[in-house]
UniProtKB/TrEMBL annotation, chain A:
Gene3D superfamilies, alphabetized: Aldehyde oxidase/xanthine dehydrogenase, a/b hammerhead, Aldehyde oxidase/xanthine dehydrogenase, molybdopterin binding domain
EC numbers, comma separated: 1.2.7.4
Designated name of the protein: Carbon-monoxide dehydrogenase large subunit
GO MF, one annotated term: anaerobic carbon-monoxide dehydrogenase activity
Organism: Nonomuraea angiospora
High-level lineage: Bacteria, Bacillati, Actinomycetota, Actinomycetes, Streptosporangiales
Domain Aldehyde oxidase/xanthine dehydrogenase a/b hammerhead: 42-157
Region of interest called Disordered, as start-end residue ranges on this chain: 1-35
Keywords: Molybdenum, Oxidoreductase
From TrEMBL, chain B:
2Fe-2S ferredoxin-type domain ranges (all copies): 2-78
Organism: Nonomuraea angiospora
Gene3D superfamilies on file: 3.10.20.30, [2Fe-2S]-binding domain (1.10.150.120)
EC nos: 1.2.7.4
Keyword tags: 2Fe-2S, Iron, Iron-sulfur, Metal-binding, Oxidoreductase
Gene Ontology terms, MF aspect: anaerobic carbon-monoxide dehydrogenase activity
Name of the protein in its database record: Carbon-monoxide dehydrogenase small subunit
InterPro entries to which the protein is assigned, alphabetical: 2Fe-2S-bd, 2Fe-2S-bd_dom_sf, 2Fe-2S_ferredoxin-like_sf, 2Fe-2S_ferredoxin-type, Beta-grasp_dom_sf, Diverse_Oxidoreductases
Length: 804, 160
């Protein structure tokens, strides 16, 4: 390899990135290459599974092969005897101490939150549930020992279908029945909207179950030095996890340190308090030794919470000119066997998003959460909002088809116009800013919409076996999960503020500490940009610390595109406080009054003179201070929390062109255009990367991915060979552009971008496929739109049975 | 237990290994080479890709004993003396990584694909990386990075 080595040292990366930038240029908005990259690219990483401690033991779990059964006998003594095995326990051994995994979002009065032991004690309710564990000197010995555990089950009936689960006489997943909760929301006169409506569209869509599949499998390392514990976990939520682990295990919070080291992707799947985290902690306590658990992929597919899984029944009433009168949504949401951290809240996050960017007179939303004997569902990439956006965007296309209108035109007639912001929607949210016309016009131009429509018509006329389909999706999302007041109204079990702190070191360098916990989003780079501007210091002089509760001592972590909109602003506020302190210090050092100082480009200058001190010089002055007056402290540090008044509402228009081979059912994405409006942009490179990844996932839901259970409740898609994740060869290049309507709910005007691509893309792709097939009388293809499903639809119009 | 000799990133090791020990576990757990991560157990994801005698392999599908007498290069040994390989640099410049978990394997696969086709088309790059999955990037920037890396490597080879 050496002959192709350039001899460029890794550390030079950061310096090379700032060449040719004039001094004083704003950092925010600049396409900075990431500070994070050098370590990740050279393998100097701290994935949890890379960590090791002296005397560390390996934990492995025995998992239920049955979807539903009573445990009649369990004997772990055979495992204990094997070489290298230190201990083995069953759920029964742990019954008294293991507590119950928490659910923090009791969405309704009638909610049933079943007891959820980390290891099953007497009954298993999904395939993969932990029933016993072994602790051995290495993973090979632990795997051997699992086979020596003797366990007997008495099978109980599996409950897999939500409609059947709700039917009278259905076997019960829990004593209290299979209904977890029901919620109904009404706004406007829905009956009047549907009465004598010229057009009514009535459709049922299935949001298939997805497996999040972050590339890094989960891992947990728990260590103790007596009565204090440190747990490293591949988690998105070290702070929430710390509180919850303290509550569940009874270990006092101040004796518990949680570290999220490098985390290899999350997408919501690591927004969880898992059985394995609780059990590793308890095992470290019991054995007085460090223990580690590392998930295998097939174990992960069974036991990382799944996403989506809804049956959506949607009715839309409209005028003959396409204007919407009313929308009625009735959901069944599969909870799986238990309610995990925010399981019941996920479908509710979609409740105020079904009406999307459209004006209407009436809206009704109903949702029933259903228990089944499957892995629980919970937050996954967009969490509730992709489902809602899919539903409404599919129905809008059906409305267009019914009225023989262009699907873009039907949207135009209904959406909120750019001069109508702020606008309070029928579901009660106030959208602060946006410009749907601008984003759509730009997307149409970039896409070459008219030309593609002409080509489509031509192919139709010629009876080309390869038909062209065009799909549009105009979306908004409610993101930046924060406003504590609004989360409180939704019964969410915590506030939504975020914490940031800033400390200037004696040499003038800056440490920023954030309560958010990144796992690929590039916070270190973006937060450096924000702090560099706010303090007037060089980008390279800032470092960002996160993900360790001993350092980042407060926070609400990273999910729901909240990091920048809430956490980034907390950092900005902390910087402003530091600047206030620096002004007082400058006044003392420069022997003037604070009012005589003007601040520019990182320096305080005595008005009308050349005398000045940079903020970095002042940091040193604070360190060397001997004679500070009353009220001026010897420190340039501060912290702040931020809790915005409102969510933020990115929006955009995605357009997809597909070629559908009517002879084979093959779908090929020919082009994909996305114009997103995520407000002000801190780092365009990072925004673009996030949108790319989101679109890839949305396309994958449309075309490839589905968690499949058989009739007995066995997961058939336990490996990456069975669960089809798209590779580079399966996806096209995406064409991206942006419009910019700054948010009004935060001082930077930022909106959040993590989930936008996923939310928008799935309906764009499916709309395109249906558009290609509509002349054949097809108005739906169930996701994922595999060649087989498309082909079957073409043969006999037979969609897979969608019962309701 | 078989004894093997293997050179990893320029250092020669002699190890007693169980016949069932996977190369990736030898690297990660015995030799401390944790730069190579594991993403699956079915050889589908490519996260564990390393060079074995100059060709990329998924180290989760190679037994340690099969590496006896071989030379392994991991992401940690790719540059020399703390330097970066042009492909690593290209990934940085094109923002071709986010969480970075797939990245070592991607870089290895990318370098290997250029052995046969030093100036690959977009199509060829996408096909060539089919065995390496990324969940964060959507691949657009990875494809661009491989292009850029190819150019840089071509330059480095032709200008001594
Ligand atoms: S870990 Fe080797 S291919 Fe996935
Ligand atoms: S960068 Fe996260 S999986 Fe590729």
């Amino acid at each position: 390899m050496s002959e192709i080595d350039t001899g460029m040292v890794a550390e030079q990366i950061e310096q090379s990135d700032q060449i040719n930038e004039p001094a004083g240029t704003s950092e925010v908005g600049r396409p900075r290459r990431r500070k994070e990259d050098a370590r990740l690219l050279t393998g100097r990483t701290q994935w949890t599974d890379n960590l090791s401690r002296p005397g560390m033991l390996q934990v492995m779990f025995l998992r239920s092969p049955m979807a539903h059964a009573r445990i009649t006998r369990v004997d772990v003594s055979g495992a204990r005897e094997l070489p290298g095995v230190v201990a083995a326990f069953s759920g029964q051994d742990f019954a008294a101490e293991q507590g119950s995994l928490p659910c923090a979002w009791p969405v309704s009065e009638d909610i049933v939150i079943p007891d959820h032991p980390p290891m099953a004690v007497s009954e298993v309710r999904y395939v993969g549930e932990a029933v016993a564990c072994v602790i051995a000197t290495d993973r090979y010995r632990a795997a051997d020992a699992l086979e020596a555990i003797d366990i007997e089950y008495e099978p109980l009936p599996a409950v897999l279908d939500m409609n059947e689960a709700l039917a009278d006489g259905s076997p019960k997943v829990h004593e209290a029945g299979n209904k977890a909760f029901s919620v109904k929301i009404n706004s406007g006169d829905i009956d009047a909207a549907f009465r004598d409506a010229p057009v009514v569209i009535d459709r049922t869509y299935i949001q298939q179950r997805l497996i999040p599949s972050a590339m890094e499998p989960r891992a947990v390392l728990a260590d103790t030095d007596g009565d204090a514990f440190t747990i490293s976990s591949s988690t998105q939520i070290p702070h929430v996890l710390r509180v919850m682990l303290a509550v569940v295990t009874g270990i006092p919070e101040h004796k518990l340190r949680v570290i999220a080291p490098d985390v290899g992707g999350g997408f919501g799947s690591k927004l969880q308090v898992t059985a394995e985290e609780v059990l590793c902690l308890l095992l470290a306590r019991k054995l007085g030794r460090p223990v580690k658990w590392t998930e295998s992929r097939s174990e992960g597919n069974l036991t990382v919470h799944h996403g989506r899984d809804q049956i959506q029944h949607i009715r839309l009433a409209a005028e003959a000119d396409g204007r919407i009168r009313g929308l009625q949504v009735d959901l069944l949401a599969d909870m799986g066997a238990y309610l995990m951290l925010v399981t019941p809240g996920i479908p509710l996050l979609g409740a105020s998003m079904f009406n999307a960017i459209y004006k209407m007179d009436a809206y009704e939303f109903g949702c029933t959460g259903v228990f089944t004997t499957k892995m629980p569902t919970d937050a996954y990439r967009g969490a509730g909002r992709p489902e809602a956006t899919f539903g409404i965007e599919r129905v809008m296309d059906e409305l267009a088809a019914e009225l023989k209108m262009d699907p873009v035109e039907v949207r135009r007639r209904n959406w909120i116009k750019h001069d109508e912001f702020p606008y309070t929607t029928i579901s009660g949210l106030t959208y602060d800013s946006g410009n749907y016309e601008a984003a759509t016009d730009r997307a149409l131009a970039l896409f070459g919409y008219d030309k593609l429509r002409a080509e489509q018509a031509d192919r139709r006329d010629r009876g080309d076996p390869v038909q062209l389909g065009i799909g549009v999706s105009t979306y908004t999302e409610m993101c930046g999960l924060a406003p504590s007041r609004m989360l409180g109204e939704a019964n969410y079990g915590a506030g939504g503020w975020e914490h940031g702190s800033v400390r200037m070191l004696p040499t003038g360098k800056v440490e920023v500490i954030t309560g958010t916990s990144p796992h690929g989003q590039g916070h270190v780079t973006s937060w450096s940009q924000i702090a560099a501007d706010a303090l007037g210091v060089p980008f390279d002089d800032v470092t960002v610390l996160h993900g360790d509760t001993a350092i980042a001592h407060k926070g609400m972590d990273t999910y729901g595109s909240r990091s920048l909109v809430v956490g980034g602003i907390a950092v900005l506020k902390a910087c402003e406080k530091v600047k206030d302190k620096a002004r007082k210090l400058a006044a003392h050092v420069l022997e003037c009054s604070p009012e005589d100082l003007e601040y520019a480009a990182g320096a305080f200058k005595v008005r009308g003179t050349d005398t000045q001190k940079t903020i970095q010089e002042l940091a040193y002055a604070a360190f060397t201070a001997h004679d500070l007056p009353e009220g001026v402290e010897a420190r340039l540090d501060s912290d702040a929390t931020f809790d915005p008044e409102n969510y933020s509402f990115p929006h955009g228009t995605h357009l997809c062109a597909v070629e559908v081979d009517t002879e084979t059912g093959m779908v090929k994405i020919r082009s994909y255009v996305a114009v997103d409006d995520v407000g002000k942009v801190v780092n365009p490179l990072i925004v673009e990367g996030q949108v790319h990844g989101g679109i890839a996932q949305g396309i994958a839901q449309a075309l490839f991915e589905e968690a499949v259970y058989d009739a007995e409740g066995n997961l058939l898609t336990t490996t990456m060979a069975d669960y089809l994740l798209p590779s580079a060869a399966d996806l096209p290049a995406f064409q991206l552009d942006r419009t910019e309507s700054p948010a009004t709910s935060n001082p930077l005007g930022v909106k959040g971008v993590g989930e936008a691509g996923t939310i928008a893309s799935t309906p764009a792709v499916v709309n395109a496929i249906v558009d290609a097939l509509r002349p054949r009388g097809i108005h739906d293809v169930r996701m994922p739109c595999t060649p087989e499903r498309v082909w079957r639809a073409l043969q006999d119009g037979a969609l897979e049975g969608v019962r309701r | 237990m078989p004894r093997i000799t293997v050179t990893v990133d320029g250092i020669k090791y002699e190890e007693d290994v169980e016949p069932r020990l996977l190369l990736v576990h030898l690297l990660r757990e015995r030799l401390g080479k944790t730069g190579t991560p594991v993403g699956c157990d079915t050889s589908n994801c490519g996260a564990c890709t390393v060079m074995l005698d100059g060709t990329s392999v998924k180290s989760c599908s190679v037994l340690a004993v099969q590496a006896d007498g071989c030379e392994v290069v991991t992401i940690e040994g790719l540059g020399v003396n703390g330097s970066m390989h042009p492909m690593q640099r290209a990934f940085h410049e094109e923002h071709a990584l986010q969480c970075g978990y797939c990245t070592p394997g991607m870089v290895m696969a990318a370098i290997d694909l250029l052995r046969e086709d030093p100036e690959p088309s977009e199509e060829a790059i996408r096909q060539g990386l089919e065995g390496n999955l990324c969940r964060c990037t959507g691949y657009c920037n990875i494809v661009k990075a491989v292009r850029r890396g190819a150019q840089e490597m071509g330059r480095a080879v032709t200008t001594p």
